[in-house]
Amino acid sequence: MRFSLRNLRQRDIAIILVVLTIVGGVLWYFYLYQPAQDRIVELESEIQRLDVEIRRGEDARRNLPELRLAVALLEEERRVFLSQLPTESQVSNVIDDLRLSAEAAGVTVQSFSQGGASENIQDVRPLGFTVSSSGTFGETMGFLGVLEGLQRYTKVNQVGLSVAADDSTDPALSSNLGFTVYVFTGADPGER
Predict the structure, then answer these.
(1) Which of 42, 75, 95, 128 qualifies as a cystine partner to 117, CB 3.0-4.6 A?
(2) Euclidean distance between the first and final Cα of the chain, in Å?
(3) pLDDT tens digit string along 1-49?
């Protein structure tokens, strides 16, 4: 049996053309139209994302002078703060001032020791100290107030108090105070 186009009737040719048209339409829909629609949706979401980034960039550009001023002010505040920190060579003066403050408050310093302090701050080194002392409640609180008053470069991180069996209104206390002194280790902040 040989196939010949001449043997096809007009109705057969129309059916073949309709089937080919439907197959071509399905192929066009799945291989051209649908991928194009997916790409359009993808591009529209990309446009929205870029619009958001453009608005952020424009806002940042408008805020840039204010940010530069804020950074300059923060750098100046940092420089002033660092210039107020004692240097490592001045730690002995700080300790001597604390000893004199303890005497002025009426507290007896029984021991003074240096321990570790582990914080990582640029151009600043933390030095941990512990002071064991004895005195009345009022004297001990006065000395603790002196330590807390040095908050610019000192942080009290441990307070241990024990009371002797005393019924007075100002009992004798043994105290164990831990604190950290922050010293400046970088270049002179006034030179910047």
Answers:
(1) 128
(2) 101
(3) 566 767 778 888 899 999 999 999 999 999 999 999 999 999 999 999 9
Distance CA(146)–CA(98), nearest Å, equals 8
Interatomic CA distance for residues 27 and 17, integer angstroms: 15
CA distance 45 to 57: 18
Task: Single out the residue of 181, 92, 189 nearest to residue 129, CA to CA.
Answer: 181
Phi, psi dihedral angles at 139 (to 5 degrees):
-65, -45
Question: What does the pLDDT look like over 127-138, one tens digit per residue?
Answer: 888 888 888 888
Rg of the chain on CA atoms, in Å: 40
Angle separating helix axes 91-105 and 137-149, nearest 10 degrees: 150
